[in-house]
Amino acid sequence: MNQTPAPEAIEKIEAIQKILFGSPGTGKSHQIKEIAKSELKIACNEKTNVLENTITTVFHPEYTYADFMGKLLPLTQGNSVIYKFYPGHFLQILGMAYQGLIEKNNKHYLLVIDELNRGNASAIFGTAFQLLDRESNNWSSYPIDITEMELVGLLNSMQYQPKVGDDGTIRVDYEGSLHPVNVFLEKTINEKKDDDEKTINEKKDDDEETIKNKDQVISLLSQRKISIPCNLSILATINTSDESIYYLDSAFKRRWDWEYIDSPNGKNFDKSRLEEDKYKNILAVKLIIKENRSGNENENENENENENENENENENEDLYWYKCVIGLNEIIKSNSKVIKRIEDKQIGFWFVKPEKDENISLEKIKDKVMFYLWDSVFSRDKRPLEEALSERTQQDIKLITYADFVDHTEEFIKYAHEKGKSYTD
Question: What PANTHER family does the record point to (predicted)?
Answer without folding.
Answer: 5-METHYLCYTOSINE-SPECIFIC RESTRICTION ENZYME B (PTHR37291), TYPE IV METHYL-DIRECTED RESTRICTION ENZYME ECOKMCRB SUBUNIT (PTHR37291:SF1)
